[in-house]
Sequence to fold (197 residues):
Amino acid sequence: MGRKPERIRQTRRLAVWTFAWVLSTALVVFGSEFLWNGAAGITLPALLLNLGLGIGMILAHRRLLETFDELERKIQMESMGITLGLTLVVGLAYSMMDITNLIPRDAEISFLVMFMGISYILAVFFNTRRYR
Amino acid sequence: MKNNIRILRAEKNLTQGDLADAVGVSRQTINAIEKEKFDPSLPTAFRIARLFGRPVEAVFQYEGE
Fold:
């Protein structure tokens, strides 16, 4: 039914959008510091570009999910739900650890992003095994 | 939900992959339906039943509470 070529096409599209988004994130952070010395007139358009590419990445992910069948979609949705819940609970706990000085440094958003990624991979792995 | 897809598939000499391709889902999905770990959507259930030339209730049996 042509699902595989379409999935490969949408996966490639998502990879391109994700790569562009990551590049634009680096551009905003490092460009502001090393290229244009924090000039808001350049940082703001770069940030808008980053937001636009981020939205494109989300839409590309949605299009990829549309190529999945009902079980694959269920696995993805359950995994995303678990990831969202875990990120909320662990993220707030991490923030409280910072506020109450249980950790000797500031809470970093990058920790949460890494946590989300690992949670999502593990959730997909275990959910896929459930239906084997 | 119980089903007799495995028997019907054997009668038609179809592999899980053949059935998956004909119905438009993955082989893993057919496997999960056969093992009764996953209940298919109504369109998928009707497509499977149509492929075997049976009414949907002859392929899937609802067990209730």
